[in-house]
Structures are given as C-alpha cells and as structure tokens.
Amino acid sequence: MAPGEKKGRRWLPAACLPRPGCFTVSATEEGPSGSGSGSGADEGGSSRAPTHLIVTVNGIVGSAENWGYAAKHFIRKHPEDVVVHCSGCNSATRTFDGVDVMGRRLAEEVISVVQCRPELQKISFVAHSLGGLIARYAIALLYEPATQTDCHEEYEKDVNDARSNQPMGQGKIAGLEPMNFITFATPHLGTRSHKQMPLLRGSYRLEKMAFGMSWLAGRSGKHLFLKDVEDEKPPLLLQMVTDYGDLHFMYAI
Questions:
Q1: Does domain 3-191 have CATH number 3.90.1150?
Q2: What is the pLDDT of residue 169?
Q3: Coiled coil: which residue ranges (predicted)?
Q4: How far is the C-alpha of 253 from the C-alpha of 249, rounded, in Å?
Q5: pLDDT for 26-65, tens place per residue?
Q6: Where are the chain's structural domains?
Q7: CB neighbour list of residue 52: distance below 8 Å, 6 or more residues apart
Q8: DSSP alpha helices (H): ranges in the chain?
C-alpha cells in the first residue's frame, strides 16, 4: 500500500474483469448475474443516454450476483438516468486478498466503465459489508482534487443557482461528479472490538476465537482485526479514518 500507488491511474487495463466492464442493468433484459448489457438507450428509440453511474460492491465471499435484484430495481425506478455496474472483480475467495488489493481492482474496473461510456457525468457507490471498505479505498485512488479553474466554475454556478447544495471546490471521482456513497453493515472500524460481529452475539469467547482464526480470511482478515502492521505503519483501517499520505480516504467522501 505504498502512497505512490495513487498515481497509478495507468493500472493494468482491467485485467481483473471476468466479463466486459460496461453494462446497463435492464428491467426487462437480465443477464446471468442480474446485469444485462445495453447501450444506455431503451428499445423504444429514446436517444437520451443515462449519465449517472451507480457502482455496487459485494462483501466478503460475495459476488456481483448479490446486487442483481437491487440493480434491476434501480433501473426500473430511473430508466433514463442511471447505469448500474455490479462490480465483479472481487468475488468468492478473491475477497480474502486484502482491502488495498481489492480497492485497486475496483478502481481499475471503474475506470474501464467510465472510459467506454463517455456520456457519464455522475457517480455513486453502494456497498455491503467488506465492500464498503473496498469502495472507500478505490475512491481514494480515483479521487482528483478540484483545480483552481474547477473552483471558479463551481463558485459561478453557486452564485447563479441558489439551489445548488454542492460544496465549492469539490473534486472528481474517476473524472465524474460524486453524488452518493452508501454502505450497509460495513465494519469501518474493523471487527476487533467487542460486539463488532453481530453473528457472535457479544460472546467474548467466540470473539477471541475469531481473532485467533482471522488468518482464514487471508489479508482481509488481518485488516478487519487490525493485525496488519507493515513497515511501522498503522493498521490499514486506522489509516483510513483520516487522509493518509497522498490518499484522501476521508476528504474524498
């Protein structure tokens, strides 16, 4: 997790993708993972392409299929506004590879989607469980601070439009305007403390056993239990409670 990795906007070209990175979930055309492919325009001849990308991220030992139902309903509700991308680069045992590794994969995947959909203008992330941490790491990598020109343009926009509630000087995520970041049951502070794993029902004995067996979940287990101490750096989740190095973990969201 070297700080210099943020500059890696020239990552491997979406090598982690098990399928094409760009697709629109359709309410009527559903693929194997609950995600159909499409051009963004409906079959009725509408020329308007959706401009809001929603990226969904699964949790530990999960897959893109976990979000198929929700993605379909996103499209049903806003058929002309959103493109839903159910991330597929971190699934099954690949979710044991560590938050940082999975975050880089997700960042590459998002870039591949944005590159093949030039009409996109906005981006949101919806994530479950460990997926929330993966998304936060990816967002820190994808974050682009606002330039002075951007700040001036936003200032002019705020002056001319009193209804605007976007903070001035807001940066971009993968070149898009950030809109929403939503997580469900995400252990943002890890699972080491008491009652941080609801499944164990507050049992100190079971929590102690889980701590000792965290290696079963690979590097992700180390990250969740704050057992990763490398190069005299604090545990990764502790780094992520603030802006650490050149990664804007907090400012970006």
A1: no
A2: 57
A3: none
A4: 7
A5: 333 443 333 433 444 444 455 689 999 999 999 999 999 9
A6: 3-191
A7: 78, 81, 82, 83, 120, 121, 122, 123, 124, 179
A8: 68-77, 99-115, 130-142, 148-160, 204-212, 218-224, 236-239
